[in-house]
């Protein structure tokens, strides 16, 4: 059940993502400067000249304290640049020719700042060109004064500088500009570029408002306010800018369908509509009915109507038989004979011949196999009764010999070994992912949440100063945890993930303060946190200690939309390194720390939270396995009590009716205890045998099989003892035992073999837990049967000999003298249950009206169960398998309530051929010139319909980012020194010494050039050698403000470089996320959707692609759980049918038993649906087990019916009188008393899957075995095997056989 260790707590994988923090603004002002407190407002007409070839601002007149330069507010004619300067301008601003309104210093400032935006947009050339043109026109356009008006100036160091401007653009220009960029992806963070360059703007007005906002000190943004407007009075001589805008759908510019889904070339690849659910329903005026329910109802009405018609016809024929013409022909005293007068079957009536005539003898005509079985049991019973010691010792010795294998006993607790069969697709994919890329990290998590205010009816926000200070205190406790492993003290920093340095990649709102409480006040407290909720990607002060942004949707819970300030929970996640080899030192260090972490959370952290009226839930990677181990021992006492109650009942029911004067003689406590010991020996023998051959046991085997075998064994014990009791006391003991075995031996054999075969067929199931259970159960039931017919029969001989010798039960050495009142105690009268069955139960069922009602009710419930069973959901909720007092109960509840992100989803590509001759690159990427149906474009489209695709975001693509990174247009990314070695961006060492607040062009890197020129690439794609040479550079490149596309951290484990020199990348992954999954069915459906998506894309692209998520290996079983269950049940039912057919040699008998067993299973599944019991390995095992146990309710009654004489109704009564009491007391009540005790188990899994399902099995099995089956047999049962013969006159009458 550790498969359930999957949790919904999977967090956003920002850990390794090194993304930009500084690019909130690419709002390029030509200049920056330091302002004084003096500001001046100007009117629109205060600017002297607004004309072509005239500037509104020119040159740099100062800078702010944070280094941002400020323009001069002086209008002047546009200036003609020299040839070199003109070529520089043309390289960046292709629309500007001739005169310009910027100096070389202004242009270099422009170039340096747009450099930060280029990596976000270069994948869509149309958007990039439009974006650059906007700022080129703002900074250098020769007609600047026509659409720009300086409205505010400030004095810096006694020099006037620009403090605010109006920028006039037409609405159509703004709309087209926004449309060209709104869908461009930023794959590194699985989101849109607009989230970074426009703060998620939903319209061009929002985008312009973001761009024009004056930035605070040390915050990226414009150094002065830019007020974008679209209307202006003509009297001012100005006109809005309306330069041409490139459409992202322009095929010449090559934007991909992922960046421009509105492109005409992408019209054929629009987002697929959500698949229609194949649910047929019929609508009536006031309600709707599913087609399957309606169909079943119609079929049921037709069948029952036909059956009722037959009943009425039968009643009419019976009444007609009472007419005066018929009475002389019939003996009217016996109604049963009247009803059988017109039977088509040629049965011999059970009437005695007259006293004057010869006596008729009853003879059984058995099939050949049953003849052999009966003959064997007659001889064998006599031999056992005469050699009980030999039989007992030899059989027990064999069981003990098998039990020696227990010295090699081991329990399998690894989820992948329990629930994932050989050849499992998920197991193979996990092994490939772990070995070629990297295993998924371990997760330690805390959830600190507020308590709902019952008075106000809402839940208060967690984002308060007191709660943040408490979070700092909790973090201090966590940082102080030290775990001892092999003499070393392990701390969190020793095992945590560190993508870019020495700091752990902890996901917490405390990262907005660099995890340092000393920064709380200086950064601005709660206001700073709320600021970072909106600017976590851009503000430097919001950057985490591990140099990456922390998404508030990961660190918070319990909020709606983007209303982070109203969040009701802090979610703190500690990603810890994981190792492929789970037995390695690294994982054991983590396990040791996790144990200490849970202890601290229980003993210190939770009380701290409770003292502030908050709740704290927590979990570690190893928590579920530890709690499951505790759960496996939590109900040992409950199970033991269940077995003791069953033993007590056995001891009572095996004995005679209690009489105070003789109870110590007639009781069967010692026999019952011995029988229970034999049952335990059969279990130990089975476990010992399989342990000896190297098969590990499981928790299910340890919990269920003893109960199963005890339930089956008790039945046989009761039936054998009752059969011996029914024999005449005038016969010697060996003959009584022999006759008893002849009477019940065949039915016991039939039932036991059916059970063995039913379980044995389960060994063909690929799911290891079910397969191993079936193997252990089959052998245990077989050994139990063999011990019952050997050792227990010998024990019966000893016990009856003891009773006849007047020795006390449990103390057989003590003999009691026979008193006067005890002399005549040789013949026993029928017990209470036997009398009930003969005098009440059977006569009631013999009425025709009762029969019709019974059939209608049972068939009706079977049809209802078929309809209900289609509503059973696959899965196994984590809360059910854990102890009720487990700390994980609250954790899983909080996960469902608060977590806002889904599990990471990886699309893994095998054998990617990156050579220039191959088309694999364009089939995978999603930037310009990529195929419209490429993998990444398809993922982006699927993310538009998350309700059916379960894909939340576009994928982070190392391939897209690599192609952008090497692009000459991203001139700050892929660079090289003159000697050909890698040159980092200007804001990284050695270009920028560590500790510098700002860096210009350093001497070290002043000669660095881009890796390639445009002509070096073919359609923007590198050659095979270029790809091979630069891929390691990219994966080792650190991201920064000058180049956000560096692959280190974000893609360090996304590409397997082993053997890539041959032009083939054997494994790479593209990461996205599933939508939040809270229910088991969500996990199953998300996995199914991902596999269907990958299969479709792989087939289309002819590239091997598979999806991988950490929970797939645990939930793969549920993709085919219905198929597994139905095949298993069909095999078990088929095996029982064949065994019955072989032993009884009666097709009709076998069909009736099969039909009743199928109805029992269907009814149990109907109860499962009513009780919301899910379909999983545990319930499948229980359903298979129910077939084995249900055989007991059917076989004995059917066998007795076959051996009875008379018409069907009479034979039904005789069968119930003979075996009904044994079935009720030895099968039904025995299991019932044991099952009821399980109701008080501490683990919910015992209550749901053992108490509820076993109780349903016992009740449904009893009703079918003692109510429905007798009625069916009385209506259409097989003919009797009894024949009446006239003995030869010369022979003396012999006793009946």
Key traits:
4-stranded mixed β-sheet, transmembrane, 4-stranded antiparallel β-sheet, disordered N terminus, 42 helices, steroid metabolism, 49% helix, alpha+beta, 1297 residues, disordered C terminus, elongated
Residue runs with pLDDT of under 50 for 5 or more positions: 1-37, 43-47, 325-357, 820-827, 1289-1297
Distance between the termini: 54 Å
Main sheet: which strands, in order across? 1-6-7-10
Percent of residues in helices comes to 40-55%
Region (Disordered): 324-354
InterPro entries: HMGCR/SNAP/NPC1-like_SSD, NPC1-like, NPC1_MLD, NPC1_N, SSD
Biased composition (Basic and acidic residues): 336-349
Protein name: SSD domain-containing protein
Q: How would you describe the overall organization of this protein?
A:
The chain is of the alpha+beta class and 1297 residues long. The strands form eleven sheets. The protein has a four-stranded mixed sheet with strand order 1-6-7-10. Helix 13 (425-436) packs antiparallel against helix 37, helix 14 packs antiparallel against helix 19 (585-611) and helix 39 runs antiparallel to helix 40. It starts with 38 loop residues before the first strand and ends in a 12-residue tail after the last strand. The model is unreliable at 1-37, 43-47, 325-357, 820-827 and 1289-1297 (pLDDT under 50). It comes from Amborella trichopoda. Belongs to the patched family.
């Amino acid at each position: 059940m550790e498969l359930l260790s999957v949790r919904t707590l999977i967090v956003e994988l920002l850990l390794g993502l090194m993304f930009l923090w500084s690019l909130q603004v690419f709002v390029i002002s030509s200049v920056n400067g330091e302002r004084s407190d003096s500001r001046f407002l100007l009117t629109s007409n205060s600017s002297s000249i607004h004309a072509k070839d005239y500037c509104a601002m020119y040159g740099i007149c100062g800078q702010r304290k944070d280094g941002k330069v400020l323009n001069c507010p002086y209008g002047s004619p546009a200036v003609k640049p020299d040839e070199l300067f003109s070529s520089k301008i043309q390289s960046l601003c292709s629309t500007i020719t001739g005169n310009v309104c910027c100096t070389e210093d202004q242009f270099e400032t422009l170039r340096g700042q747009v450099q930060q935006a280029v990596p976000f947009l270069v994948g869509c050339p149309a958007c990039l060109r439009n974006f650059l043109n906007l700022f080129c026109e703002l900074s250098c356009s020769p007609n600047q004064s026509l659409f720009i008006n300086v409205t505010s100036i400030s004095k810096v160091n006694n020099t006037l500088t620009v403090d605010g401007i109006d920028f006039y653009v037409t609405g159509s220009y703004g709309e087209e500009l926004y449309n060209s960029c709104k869908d461009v992806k930023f794959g590194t963070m699985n989101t849109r570029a607009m989230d970074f360059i426009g703060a998620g703007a939903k319209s061009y007005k929002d985008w312009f408002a973001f761009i024009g906002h004056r930035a605070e000190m040390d915050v990226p943004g414009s150094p002065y306010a830019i007020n974008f407007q679209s209307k202006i009075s003509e009297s001012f001589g100005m006109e809005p800018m309306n330069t041409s805008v490139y459409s992202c759908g322009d095929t010449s510019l090559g934007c991909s369908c992922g960046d421009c889904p509105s492109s005409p070339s992408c019209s054929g690849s629009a987002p697929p509509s959500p698949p229609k659910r194949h649910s047929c329903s019929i609508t009536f005026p006031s309600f709707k009915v599913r087609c399957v329910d309606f169909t079943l109802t119609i079929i049921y009405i037709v069948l029952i109507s036909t059956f009722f018609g037959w009943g009425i016809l039968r009643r009419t024929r019976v009444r007609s038989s009472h007419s005066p013409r018929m009475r002389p022909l019939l003996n009217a005293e016996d109604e049963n004979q009247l009803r059988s007068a017109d039977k088509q079957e040629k049965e011999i009536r059970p009437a005695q011949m007259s006293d004057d005539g010869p006596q008729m003898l009853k003879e059984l005509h058995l099939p050949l196999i049953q003849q052999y079985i009966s003959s064997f049991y007659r001889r064998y019973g006599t031999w056992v009764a005469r050699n009980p010691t030999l039989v007992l010792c030899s059989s027990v010795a064999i069981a003990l010999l098998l039990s020696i294998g227990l010295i090699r006993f081991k329990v399998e607790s690894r989820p992948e070994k329990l629930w994932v069969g050989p050849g499992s697709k998920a197991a193979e994919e996990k092994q490939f992912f772990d070995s070629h890329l990297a295993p998924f990290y371990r997760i330690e998590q805390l959830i600190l949440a507020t308590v709902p205010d019952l008075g106000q009816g809402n839940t208060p926000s967690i984002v308060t100063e007191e709660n943040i200070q408490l979070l700092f205190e909790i973090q201090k406790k966590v940082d102080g945890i030290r775990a001892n492993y092999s003499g070393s003290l392990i701390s969190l920093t020793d095992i945590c993930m560190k993508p870019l340095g020495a700091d752990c990649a902890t996901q917490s709102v405390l990262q907005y303060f660099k995890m340092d409480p000393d920064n709380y006040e200086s950064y601005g407290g709660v206001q700073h946190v709320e600021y970072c909720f909106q600017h976590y990607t851009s503000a430097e002060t919001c950057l985490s200690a591990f140099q990456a942004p922390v998404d508030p949707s990961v660190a918070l819970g319990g909020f709606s939309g983007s209303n982070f300030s109203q969040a009701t929970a802090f979610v703190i996640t500690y990603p810890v390194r994981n190792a492929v080899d789970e037995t390695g030192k690294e994982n054991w260090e983590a396990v040791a720390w996790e144990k200490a972490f849970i202890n601290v959370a229980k003993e210190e952290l939770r009380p701290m939270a409770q003292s502030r009226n908050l709740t704290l839930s927590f979990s570690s990677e190893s928590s579920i396995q530890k709690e499951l181990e505790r759960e496996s021992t939590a109900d040992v006492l409950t199970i033991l009590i269940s077995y003791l109650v069953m033993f007590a009942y056995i001891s009572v029911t095996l004995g005679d009716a209690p009489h105070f004067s003789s109870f110590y003689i007639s009781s069967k406590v010692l026999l019952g205890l011995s029988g229970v010991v034999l049952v335990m020996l059969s279990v130990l023998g089975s476990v010992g045998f399989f342990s000896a051959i190297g098969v590990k046991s499981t928790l299910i085997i340890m919990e269920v099989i003893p109960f199963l075998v005890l339930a089956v064994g008790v039945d046989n014990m009761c039936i054998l003892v009752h059969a011996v009791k029914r024999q005449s006391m005038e016969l010697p003991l060996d003959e009584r035992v022999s006759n008893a075995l002849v009477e019940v031996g065949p039915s016991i054999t039939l039932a036991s073999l059916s059970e063995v075969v039913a379980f044995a067929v389960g060994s063909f199931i690929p799911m290891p837990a079910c397969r191993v259970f079936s193997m252990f159960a089959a052998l245990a039931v077989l050994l139990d049967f063999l011990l019952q017919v050997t050792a227990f029969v010998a024990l019966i001989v000893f016990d009856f000999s003891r009773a006849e010798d007047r020795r006390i039960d449990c103390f057989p050495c003590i003999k009691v003298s026979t008193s006067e009142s005890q002399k005549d105690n040789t013949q026993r009268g029928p017990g209470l249950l036997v009398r009930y069955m003969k005098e009440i139960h059977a006569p009631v069922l013999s009425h025709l009206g009762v029969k019709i009602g019974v059939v209608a009710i049972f068939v009706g419930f079977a049809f209802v169960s078929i309809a209900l069973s289609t509503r059973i959901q696959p899965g196994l909720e984590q809360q059910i398998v854990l102890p009720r007092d487990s700390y994980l109960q609250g954790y899983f509840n909080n996960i469902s309530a608060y977590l806002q992100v889904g599990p990471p989803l990886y699309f893994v590509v095998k054998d990617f051929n990156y050579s220039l001759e191959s088309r694999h690159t364009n089939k995978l990427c999603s930037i310009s010139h990529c195929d419209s149906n490429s993998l990444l474009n398809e993922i982006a489209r699927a993310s538009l319909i998350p309700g059916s695709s379960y894909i939340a975001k576009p994928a982070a693509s190392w391939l897209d980012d690599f192609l952008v990174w090497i692009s000459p247009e991203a001139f700050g990314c892929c660079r090289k020194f003159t000697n050909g070695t890698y040159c980092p961006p200007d804001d990284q060492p050695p270009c920028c010494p560590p500790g510098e607040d700002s860096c210009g062009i350093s001497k070290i890197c002043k000669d660095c050039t881009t890796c390639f020129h445009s002509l070096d690439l073919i359609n923007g794609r590198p050659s095979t050698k270029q790809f091979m040479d630069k891929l390691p550079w990219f994966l080792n490149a650190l991201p920064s403000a000058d180049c956000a596309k560096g692959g280190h951290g974000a893609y360090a484990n996304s590409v397997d470089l082993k053997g890539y020199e041959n032009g083939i990348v054997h494994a790479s992954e593209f990461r996205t996320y599933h939508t939040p999954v809270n229910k088991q069915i969500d996990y199953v459906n998300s996995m199914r959707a991902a596999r269907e998506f990958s299969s479709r894309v792989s087939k289309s692209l002819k590239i091997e692609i598979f999806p991988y998520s950490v929970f797939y290996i645990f939930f793969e079983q549920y993709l085919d759980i219905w198929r597994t269950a139905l095949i298993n049940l069909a095999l078990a039912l088929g095996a029982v049918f064949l065994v019955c057919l072989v032993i009884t040699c009666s097709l009709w008998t076998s069909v009736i038993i099969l039909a009743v067993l199928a109805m029992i299973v269907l009814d149990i599944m109907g109860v499962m649906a009513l009780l919301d019991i899910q379909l999983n390995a545990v319930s499948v095992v229980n359903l298979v087990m129910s077939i084995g146990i249900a055989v007991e309710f059917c076989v004995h009654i059917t066998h007795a019916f076959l051996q009875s004489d008379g018409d069907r109704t009479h034979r039904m009564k005789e069968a119930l009188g003979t075996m009904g009491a044994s079935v009720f007391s030895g099968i039904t009540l025995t299991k019932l008393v044991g099952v009821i005790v399980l109701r008080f188990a501490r683990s919910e899994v015992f209550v749901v899957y053992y108490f509820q399902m076993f109780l349903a099995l016992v009740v449904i099995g009893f009703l079918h075995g003692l109510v429905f089956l007798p009625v069916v047999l009385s209506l259409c049962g097989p003919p009797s095997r009894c024949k009446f013969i006239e003995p030869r006159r010369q022979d003396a009458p012999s006793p009946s056989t």
